[in-house]
Design brief:
alpha+beta; 4 strands; 23% helix
Length: 83
């Protein structure tokens, strides 16, 4: 569906919490998927973070969000069951 809209760029982002993201990409065969659709794999843990302010009273002044997410025109979040 996404590729059918002819976007300038497609990124597949992941930020693993308990393993290396590159291992997850390999385990889930994401390299094949990315190549098939001309997408780029992005390790969100390694992306430069951008400070995004949060409303007062939430216990912090800002959060750091990966540049690839902040600069995206459209973000599709797909939770995946992980072991």
């Amino acid at each position: 569906m996404v590729a059918d809209t002819m976007p300038k760029e497609i990124l597949i982002g992941e930020g693993s919490a308990d393993a290396y993201t590159t291992q997850g990409f390999r385990f889930q065969n994401m390299g094949y998927i990315a190549a098939r659709y001309g997408a780029k794999l992005v390790d969100l843990n390694l992306e430069e973070g951008i400070k995004i302010p949060v409303p007062p009273g939430l216990g912090r002044d800002y959060v750091m969000i990966p540049r690839a997410i902040v600069k995206s025109d459209i973000l599709i979040s797909l939770p995946v069951f992980k072991l």
